[in-house]
Specification:
The chain is an alpha/beta fold. Helices cover 42% and strands 14% of the residues. The protein is built from 12 helices and 8 strands. Helix 5 links the parallel strand 3 and strand 4.
Length: 312
Amino acid sequence: MQRRDFLAAAAALPATAAMTPIPIIDTHIHLFDPRRPQGIPWPPKTAKFYKPTLPADYRALTKSLGIVGAIEVECSPWLEDNQWVLDVSAKETIMVGMIGNLEPGKPDFPKQLERFAKNPLFRGIRCGYLWDRNIRTDLQSQAFIDGLRRLGAGGFTLDSANPTVALLEDLIHVGDKVPNLKIVIDHLPKIVVPADPKGRAAYAAAIKILSARPNVYVKISAVLNKIGDRIPYELAPYKAKIDSLYDAFGPDRLLYGSDWPNSEPLGNYAQVLSVVREYFTAKGPEIAEKYFWKNSLAAYGWKRREKGQPGK
């Protein structure tokens, strides 16, 4: 990050944010290394962030911003990349967890879950309309439901991927079938709310149902967006959408996530953080603590690995 970018983003923070020593757990980062002999399935070589993104890189990038821990969300459909993430995370104690890639409906899922669950950094799996998978179709399979039940029984979490109204409706069905499963909806500020009345009503109905379920959490992540011909780095253009999610889900089920390095085309890390830091700092230290680390502890059950991290 360029020094001038950091100073500009820091200047945008309210004075109270700089003085508030609230530790931050980032619940959504991605790790990969294109230098590996086998390469990587994502991101494409044309991406701005097609470069090694490892825990040490993340620590160096965020050390002056109050970040004390991170949870990796798997961006590869390759089974053994779960192990690669766990291995690189084991060497760097800023990593407190990972959300893996396993397919609950596959015959080998019980064995795979048992394998990765032995590592305390493994906190759940990601599921949705990615990697050519279709959760709505999968929900018709009893094997898939049984896999989700196994996940819930183990205390693990299901992270959704890339929100749409259809995916929100699917998550309602997941909760109906597996009531004890913790669900984390990622990047909900990014959702495109339909413009037509029927679509808007479907979105509102889904949010109403999901927000009434205490084991459903939401990441206020992927907040930055191009509006017109610019990407704003001040809170005002994003506040109404964050307000709507805060009003729906309350202060106890919202989580911080940066989406680094996927966020880089929209802004540097300090700019990503400054918008949500301003919003939640204004609500007082108790609520800011919940957003920046306490709620993620409830959602994921991560364990402290180094001095400076909160929790036990």
